[in-house]
Protein backbone atom coordinates (compact mmCIF):
# COMPACT_ATOMS: atom_id res chain seq x y z
CA UNK A 1 0.00 0.00 0.00
CA UNK A 2 1.82 3.10 -1.23
CA UNK A 3 1.62 6.21 0.96
CA UNK A 4 2.06 9.67 -0.53
CA UNK A 5 3.93 12.16 1.64
CA UNK A 6 3.39 15.73 0.51
CA UNK A 7 4.63 19.16 1.51
CA UNK A 8 4.25 22.49 -0.23
CA UNK A 9 7.84 23.66 0.17
CA UNK A 10 11.25 22.02 0.11
CA UNK A 11 12.00 23.15 3.67
CA UNK A 12 9.05 21.07 4.88
CA UNK A 13 10.04 17.88 3.03
CA UNK A 14 13.85 17.78 3.14
CA UNK A 15 14.04 15.58 6.25
CA UNK A 16 11.50 13.14 4.78
CA UNK A 17 13.55 12.76 1.58
CA UNK A 18 16.65 12.20 3.70
CA UNK A 19 14.92 9.16 5.26
CA UNK A 20 14.41 7.48 1.86
CA UNK A 21 17.45 5.35 1.00
CA UNK A 22 16.45 4.25 -2.50
CA UNK A 23 14.41 7.01 -4.08
CA UNK A 24 14.21 7.54 -7.83
CA UNK A 25 12.69 10.63 -9.35
CA UNK A 26 9.97 10.91 -11.98
CA UNK A 27 8.64 14.21 -13.35
CA UNK A 28 4.89 14.50 -13.95
CA UNK A 29 3.08 17.79 -14.48
CA UNK A 30 6.30 19.68 -13.86
CA UNK A 31 6.70 18.15 -10.41
CA UNK A 32 9.37 15.82 -9.08
CA UNK A 33 7.84 12.68 -7.57
CA UNK A 34 10.27 10.67 -5.44
CA UNK A 35 9.44 6.95 -5.44
CA UNK A 36 11.06 4.71 -2.87
CA UNK A 37 10.76 3.39 0.66
CA UNK A 38 10.68 4.92 4.10
CA UNK A 39 11.10 2.59 7.06
CA UNK A 40 10.57 -0.23 4.53
CA UNK A 41 7.18 1.00 3.35
CA UNK A 42 6.49 2.09 -0.23
CA UNK A 43 6.28 5.85 -0.46
CA UNK A 44 5.91 8.60 -3.08
CA UNK A 45 7.16 11.94 -1.77
CA UNK A 46 6.42 15.17 -3.62
CA UNK A 47 6.39 18.93 -3.26
CA UNK A 48 2.94 20.16 -4.24
CA UNK A 49 4.06 23.79 -4.41
CA UNK A 50 1.87 26.42 -2.83
CA UNK A 51 -1.88 27.03 -3.20
CA UNK A 52 -5.08 25.16 -3.92
CA UNK A 53 -4.64 24.64 -7.66
CA UNK A 54 -1.11 23.29 -7.20
CA UNK A 55 -2.47 21.02 -4.47
CA UNK A 56 -5.29 19.68 -6.67
CA UNK A 57 -2.90 18.95 -9.55
CA UNK A 58 -0.56 17.10 -7.21
CA UNK A 59 -3.32 15.08 -5.55
CA UNK A 60 -4.73 14.03 -8.92
CA UNK A 61 -1.32 12.97 -10.27
CA UNK A 62 -0.60 10.99 -7.08
CA UNK A 63 -3.85 9.08 -7.44
CA UNK A 64 -4.09 8.69 -11.23
CA UNK A 65 -0.42 8.18 -12.15
CA UNK A 66 1.10 6.70 -9.03
CA UNK A 67 -1.88 4.77 -7.64
CA UNK A 68 -1.22 5.88 -4.06
CA UNK A 69 -3.64 4.40 -1.52
CA UNK A 70 -3.43 7.19 1.05
CA UNK A 71 -2.11 10.75 1.17
CA UNK A 72 -0.50 12.50 4.12
CA UNK A 73 0.31 16.21 4.04
CA UNK A 74 2.95 17.53 6.38
CA UNK A 75 3.87 21.18 6.69
CA UNK A 76 3.29 24.44 8.51
CA UNK A 77 0.27 26.66 9.12
CA UNK A 78 -0.69 29.93 10.74
CA UNK A 79 -2.43 29.61 14.11
CA UNK A 80 -5.90 31.18 14.28
CA UNK A 81 -7.83 30.05 17.36
CA UNK A 82 -6.65 31.43 20.71
CA UNK A 83 -4.01 29.13 22.23
CA UNK A 84 -2.85 27.64 18.93
CA UNK A 85 0.67 29.00 19.12
CA UNK A 86 3.98 28.79 17.29
CA UNK A 87 5.53 25.35 17.79
CA UNK A 88 2.19 23.63 18.47
CA UNK A 89 1.03 20.85 16.16
CA UNK A 90 -2.41 20.62 14.54
CA UNK A 91 -3.82 17.40 13.09
CA UNK A 92 -6.84 18.28 10.96
CA UNK A 93 -10.12 16.49 11.37
CA UNK A 94 -11.79 18.56 8.62
CA UNK A 95 -10.99 21.19 5.99
CA UNK A 96 -12.79 24.22 4.55
CA UNK A 97 -11.89 26.79 1.86
CA UNK A 98 -12.10 30.14 3.62
CA UNK A 99 -11.90 32.06 0.31
CA UNK A 100 -14.75 30.18 -1.42
CA UNK A 101 -17.90 32.28 -1.79
CA UNK A 102 -20.42 31.57 -4.55
CA UNK A 103 -23.22 33.40 -2.69
CA UNK A 104 -26.00 34.16 -3.29
CA UNK A 105 -26.19 31.12 -5.61
CA UNK A 106 -24.75 28.87 -2.89
CA UNK A 107 -24.15 29.56 0.80
CA UNK A 108 -20.78 31.12 1.59
CA UNK A 109 -18.03 28.45 1.93
CA UNK A 110 -20.20 25.75 0.35
CA UNK A 111 -18.41 23.90 -2.45
CA UNK A 112 -20.86 24.34 -5.35
CA UNK A 113 -22.76 21.20 -6.29
CA UNK A 114 -21.33 19.15 -3.41
CA UNK A 115 -23.76 20.48 -0.79
CA UNK A 116 -20.79 20.55 1.61
CA UNK A 117 -18.64 23.27 3.07
CA UNK A 118 -16.08 20.98 4.63
CA UNK A 119 -14.45 17.67 3.88
CA UNK A 120 -13.43 15.31 6.67
CA UNK A 121 -9.96 13.89 7.10
CA UNK A 122 -9.88 10.11 7.17
CA UNK A 123 -10.53 9.36 10.87
CA UNK A 124 -8.21 6.33 11.12
CA UNK A 125 -5.33 8.00 9.27
CA UNK A 126 -5.84 11.19 11.29
CA UNK A 127 -5.63 9.21 14.51
CA UNK A 128 -2.45 7.44 13.34
CA UNK A 129 -0.96 10.82 12.46
CA UNK A 130 -1.85 12.26 15.86
CA UNK A 131 -0.28 9.26 17.61
CA UNK A 132 2.82 9.60 15.44
CA UNK A 133 3.09 13.30 16.36
CA UNK A 134 2.71 12.50 20.07
CA UNK A 135 5.40 9.82 20.00
CA UNK A 136 7.80 11.76 17.74
CA UNK A 137 7.50 15.06 19.62
CA UNK A 138 6.86 14.27 23.27
CA UNK A 139 5.61 17.26 25.21
CA UNK A 140 4.45 19.15 22.12
CA UNK A 141 0.95 20.70 22.32
CA UNK A 142 -1.30 18.85 19.89
CA UNK A 143 -4.65 20.20 18.65
CA UNK A 144 -7.26 18.44 16.53
CA UNK A 145 -9.99 20.17 14.55
CA UNK A 146 -10.87 22.35 11.58
CA UNK A 147 -8.10 23.65 9.31
CA UNK A 148 -9.00 26.28 6.71
CA UNK A 149 -7.29 26.80 3.37
CA UNK A 150 -7.19 29.64 0.85
CA UNK A 151 -5.01 31.23 -1.76
CA UNK A 152 -3.72 33.85 0.64
CA UNK A 153 -0.80 34.02 3.03
CA UNK A 154 -2.62 35.58 5.99
CA UNK A 155 -0.18 38.13 7.35
CA UNK A 156 -2.13 40.89 9.06
CA UNK A 157 -3.73 40.90 12.48
CA UNK A 158 -6.85 42.42 10.89
CA UNK A 159 -7.32 39.57 8.43
CA UNK A 160 -6.58 36.97 11.08
CA UNK A 161 -9.20 38.49 13.40
CA UNK A 162 -11.76 38.59 10.58
CA UNK A 163 -11.14 34.91 9.83
CA UNK A 164 -11.47 33.99 13.50
CA UNK A 165 -14.74 35.91 13.73
CA UNK A 166 -16.16 34.30 10.58
CA UNK A 167 -14.92 30.78 11.38
CA UNK A 168 -14.50 30.48 15.15
CA UNK A 169 -13.89 26.71 14.95
CA UNK A 170 -10.86 27.16 12.69
CA UNK A 171 -7.64 26.18 14.46
CA UNK A 172 -5.21 27.09 11.70
CA UNK A 173 -4.91 28.50 8.20
CA UNK A 174 -2.84 27.24 5.29
CA UNK A 175 -3.05 27.09 1.50
CA UNK A 176 -3.48 23.47 0.36
CA UNK A 177 -5.30 21.12 2.75
CA UNK A 178 -8.91 21.69 1.64
CA UNK A 179 -7.96 21.14 -2.01
CA UNK A 180 -6.28 17.83 -1.19
CA UNK A 181 -9.29 16.85 0.88
CA UNK A 182 -11.72 17.60 -1.96
CA UNK A 183 -9.76 15.61 -4.56
CA UNK A 184 -9.34 12.72 -2.12
CA UNK A 185 -13.10 12.84 -1.41
CA UNK A 186 -13.77 12.64 -5.17
CA UNK A 187 -11.54 9.57 -5.56
CA UNK A 188 -12.30 7.89 -2.22
CA UNK A 189 -8.65 8.05 -1.12
CA UNK A 190 -7.91 8.50 2.62
CA UNK A 191 -6.28 11.84 3.41
CA UNK A 192 -4.88 13.37 6.59
CA UNK A 193 -2.71 16.37 7.36
CA UNK A 194 -0.42 17.51 10.13
CA UNK A 195 0.67 21.13 10.41
CA UNK A 196 3.15 22.69 12.76
CA UNK A 197 2.25 26.26 13.66
CA UNK A 198 4.91 28.56 12.19
CA UNK A 199 3.20 31.90 12.90
CA UNK A 200 -0.03 33.43 14.19
CA UNK A 201 -1.18 34.72 10.76
CA UNK A 202 -0.78 38.23 12.18
CA UNK A 203 1.36 41.30 11.55
CA UNK A 204 4.44 39.32 12.67
CA UNK A 205 3.62 36.32 10.44
CA UNK A 206 6.13 37.01 7.71
CA UNK A 207 9.15 37.03 10.01
CA UNK A 208 7.91 34.19 12.21
CA UNK A 209 7.14 32.00 9.18
CA UNK A 210 10.56 32.56 7.60
CA UNK A 211 12.41 31.77 10.82
CA UNK A 212 10.33 28.69 11.59
CA UNK A 213 10.49 27.22 8.10
CA UNK A 214 14.27 27.58 8.15
CA UNK A 215 14.86 26.15 11.59
CA UNK A 216 12.12 23.73 12.63
CA UNK A 217 9.63 22.68 9.91
CA UNK A 218 11.63 19.95 8.20
CA UNK A 219 12.79 18.37 11.46
CA UNK A 220 9.22 18.13 12.78
CA UNK A 221 7.90 16.73 9.49
CA UNK A 222 10.65 14.12 9.29
CA UNK A 223 10.12 12.97 12.87
CA UNK A 224 6.34 12.67 12.51
CA UNK A 225 6.47 10.85 9.17
CA UNK A 226 9.12 8.46 10.44
CA UNK A 227 6.92 7.63 13.45
CA UNK A 228 3.87 7.20 11.19
CA UNK A 229 5.59 4.68 8.93
CA UNK A 230 7.51 2.84 11.64
CA UNK A 231 6.48 -0.82 11.29
N1 LIG B 1 1.15 28.74 6.20
C1 LIG B 1 1.90 29.08 7.26
N2 LIG B 1 1.52 30.27 7.78
C2 LIG B 1 0.51 30.69 6.98
C3 LIG B 1 -0.30 31.86 6.97
N3 LIG B 1 -0.12 32.81 7.88
N4 LIG B 1 -1.25 31.97 6.01
C4 LIG B 1 -1.42 31.00 5.09
N5 LIG B 1 -0.68 29.89 5.05
C5 LIG B 1 0.28 29.72 5.98
Question: How is this structure best described in words?
Answer:
The protein has 231 residues and is α/β, with parallel strands linked by helices. The chain contains seven helices and ten strands. It has helices spanning 10-18, 52-64, 123-136, 157-166, 177-187, 205-215, 217-229; strands spanning 3-7, 24-28, 31-38, 41-47, 70-79, 89-97, 119-120, 142-149, 170-174, 191-199. The chain has a five-stranded mixed beta barrel with strand order 5-9-8-6-10, surrounded by five helices. A hairpin with a 2-residue loop joins strand 3 and strand 4 (41-47). Helix 2 (52-64) runs parallel beside helix 5 (177-187). The radius of gyration is 16 Å and the shape is globular. It starts with a strand and ends with a helix. The relative contact order is 0.23. The model has no long low-confidence stretch (mean pLDDT 96). It binds adenine. Adenine binds at residues 76-78, 153-155, 173-175, 198-199, 201, 205, 209.
Amino acid sequence: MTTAIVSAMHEELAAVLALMPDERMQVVGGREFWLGHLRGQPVVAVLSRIGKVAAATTATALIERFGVRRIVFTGVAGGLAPGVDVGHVVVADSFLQHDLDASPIFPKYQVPLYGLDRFAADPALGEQLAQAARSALPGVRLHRGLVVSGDRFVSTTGESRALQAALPQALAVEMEGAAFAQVCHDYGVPFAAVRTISDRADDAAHGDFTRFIREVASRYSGAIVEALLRP
